[in-house]
Design brief:
Protein name: Helix-turn-helix domain-containing protein
Shape: globular
Number of strands: 11
Strand content: 5-15%
Radius of gyration: 23 Å
CATH topology of the largest domain: Rossmann fold
Pfam families: DJ-1_PfpI, HTH_18
Oligomer: single chain
Number of domains: 2
Keywords: DNA-binding, Transcription, Transcription regulation
Distance between the termini: 55 Å
Largest sheet: 7 strands, mixed
CATH class of the largest domain: Alpha Beta
CATH architecture of the largest domain: 3-Layer(aba) Sandwich
Length: 362
């Protein structure tokens, strides 16, 4: 029998147990579990899956879950010991943190593994480690949507795809990044197909009921901009628009409120928030509309008017562009989730009484 492909799962104390052990269970089962389930005869394991860490010592990951690595990364170095693929599991990082330089030994190993021909992958915030290693410079990549601004601040050479669940545009460069935490499902299916063939990928997906994230990340993304506190005029406008986004001509109103000319206001607003003023208003309106669509039964035309769009066709067009789904499709998707969750003991407040999407708490 030929040597099984080796897949190394790089983990650290900031890693989620669900990602690490989920990947391990699924990849470890390839070739073995499906025939046992359908014919009663276990098959042969097709992948050699190993958990690795910087020093190889045991540790506890998020939730105080114990992890006993199979090896230290130094034990998997050199042309004869390098894995065929490396997956950097998620490494939880606050969106306000400075991610650079946290794992210098691991980033050096990732560069070496990639140079020696390994496929290098990441899940969620694990992409920060690939970016810190310089492997994503000039390339597209994805991670959880909440890290979009962090990539812009610390890794501006990376073309961040906040809409993507599995970024395969750099596949030819042996780099694949997966979005949010549960995007490891999509990555696992991709890796099984790549190393073991399409049939094994389908069979494993059937065993674990994996269906992928065909809608991408955009339907799940939330506006997470904190209130700016360094520019008083812009901060005041942010506070005002959080409760007035449904007003007519809101950008003109903010310019007037700031006492600045339009060009200066636009420049300072973008510097403080990262958004052009009209994009900021649209983001607030769409975020509020999403909250209504998730649980309310108001007609879409009424939701449109309630968030500031008199023209329902314009609302639908802008919503689809920003969210990736039509308002009706978004409602179906998330109201199904609310049905699964069951009654919560209370109804959602009406739009006028709901928490504002642009408040400082977001």
């Amino acid at each position: 029998m030929s040597k099984r492909p080796v897949i190394a799962l790089l983990a650290a104390p900031e890693t989620s147990a669900s990602v690490l052990y989920g990947l391990y269970d699924v990849l470890f089962s390839v070739g073995a579990v499906y025939p046992d389930m359908v014919a009663g005869t276990p098959g042969e394991e097709l992948l050699d899956v190993r958990i690795v860490s910087e020093d190889g010592n045991g540790f506890h990951c998020l939730g105080n879950v114990p992890v006993e690595p199979h090896a230290a990364i130094d034990e998997m170095s050199g042309p004869d010991a390098m894995p065929d693929a490396v997956i950097v599991c998620d490494l939880y990082t606050s969106i306000h943190a400075t991610p650079s330089g946290r794992y210098p030994h691991a980033t050096a190993w990732l560069r070496q593994a990639h140079a020696n021909g390994a496929l290098v992958c990441s899940v969620c915030s694990g992409a920060l480690l690939l970016a810190d290693a310089g492997l994503l410079d000039g390339r597209e990549a994805t991670a959880h949507w909440a890290y979009r601004d962090m990539f812009g601040r610390h890794y501006p050479k990376v073309r961040f795809r906040s809409d993507s669940v599995l970024c395969l545009t750099t596949e030819a460069d042996r780099l694949v990044t997966a979005g949010g935490v549960s995007a490891w499902h999509d990555l696992a299916v991709y890796l099984i197909a790549r190393f073991c063939g399409y049939r094994h990928a389908i069979e494993t997906a059937k065993v674990f009921l994996i269906s992928g994230h065909s809608d991408g990340q955009s339907p799940y993304a939330v506006m997470t901009r904190p209130m700016d506190t360094t520019d008083a005029a812009i901060s005041d406008c942010q506070a005002w628009i959080a409760n007035s986004y449904d007003q007519p001509n809101p950008v003109e109103a903010m310019v007037s409120r700031s006492g600045l000319n339009a060009r200066t206001f636009s420049r300072r607003f973008r510097a403080a928030t990262g958004y052009a003023p009209i994009d900021y208003v649209q983001a607030l309106r769409i975020e509020e509309a999403k909250q209504a669509l998730e649980t309310d039964s108001l007609p879409i035309e009424e939701v449109s008017v309630a968030v500031g769009y008199e023209d329902a066709a314009s609302f639908r067009r802008i919503f689809k562009r920003r969210v990736g789904l039509t308002p009706a499709a978004y409602r179906r998707k998330f109201q199904r989730l609310s049905q699964i969750a069951g009654p919560t003991g209370g109804s959602r407040p009406a739009i006028a009484d709901a928490p504002r999407a642009g408040s400082a708490s977001t």
